[in-house]
Structure of Aspartate--tRNA(Asp/Asn) ligase:
Amino acid sequence: MQRILSAELARHVGEQVTIAGWIHRRRMLKSVAFLILRDRSGFAQVVTTSAELEALSEETVVRVTGTVTANEVAPGGVELTGPTIEVLSDEVEALPVELFRPSLTVTLPTLLDHAPLTLRHPARRPLFDLRAAVIRGFRSTLDGLGFTEVHSPKIVGIATESGSNVFELDYFGRKAYLAQSPQLYKQTLVGVFERVYEIGQAFRAEPSDTARHLAEYVSLDAELGFIENQRDVMAVLRDVVAGMIAEAKAVPSVAGAGFDLPEVPAEIPILHFSEALKIAGASPDEEDLAPAHERAVGEWGLREHGSDFVYVEGYPTLKRAFYTHPEPGREPYSRAFDLIFRGIEMVSGSQRLHRYADYVSTLTERGAQLGPYESFLEVFKLGMPPHGGFAIGLERFVAQLTGIANIREVTYFPRDLHRVTP
Ligand code: AMO
């Protein structure tokens, strides 16, 4: 018999049906026993006997055929009676974590060490449903704006973001690196498609053991040509973030989880870097915003504009990567920006240099060898329009949307300073 989902049972009262899933919980009473089966749609109650359930343990995978019977005290108002239970999996050993408890009160190391099991906990589902939804929103918004989805190599010949936090690997006897960002490739592909985006892994050999750094994260990148300046990029990013949040709000499990999902204002307030320092009470000589400064900027946005989002633009050029476009006539400032969401940097972007000579001079000034960059710089002799783009850190965004303090909790199998399994 064809399998139906537990959420579909109510439409089949009086019929014989087959469902399949995991034994979420067993409840054995004197005269009767209940098996709570979990599948991708939710839960179903199966009425059986203790003798039948005794030999089975939680998380065993079973297929159950029985009659759908109305019972208003059962979950969803129906249950399966007169069941035949068939075991589909191996026998399940003693579980390190009990999934049938409503909340998962385990330490972070336990949660992560037992990820194959703890990811199954129903309370975690909305987090990952939201994660998938914001990716859908990112993709559909950019598709609607005429962007092309691309994929760039993750094994690359040069470091793009900064030399220090790059993973080096032995590539057939030569040195290569894991891509810290699709940066140079997305720029190059603007020369092909004008507007591109990529959803892919980025690798950072982050020595910082913090709640917001991973060694491998998902970077949601976009890049577009024919811009006047960074403001055109910031306008696209605003629409992308709004599309991501709208998609998340439309998911029933996300709506039911009670997350405090923000409204994205039509115009996100913009602060120049120098104003942001003032608001944060920082010295005007600071060259970057520290986490405490970002928090102060976030509070300013909420206080002055009722906005959870604030753009800071004009970061000092030398504090940003070499491809960043300076603000002409306003040294030391650049056309780079960050999007601060509830006090944390979530997105970085900028207008890029698009002239060959500018790359040569900036790399030289920064003391870099031109050699490794040569193949990338070629494209700037082949006709490149003014362009810019941004990258959203998926895990930081999801953690901040859901109020989760540590981004490892919204990552399936996090990679960090200490962790390379599971
Ligand atoms: P940046 O290095 O600021 O910019 O990274 C962009 C965004 O990626 C996220 N992020 C991280 N998330 C988790 N763990 C990490 N170790 C980590 N590092 C970064 C953050 C950050 O805002 N090429 C530029 C983007 C561009 O200009 O288009 C870049 O990579 O959310």
User: Anything to note?
Assistant: The domain at 6-87 is CATH 2.40.50.140 (OB fold (Dihydrolipoamide Acetyltransferase, E2P)). The chain is about 25% helix and 25% strand.
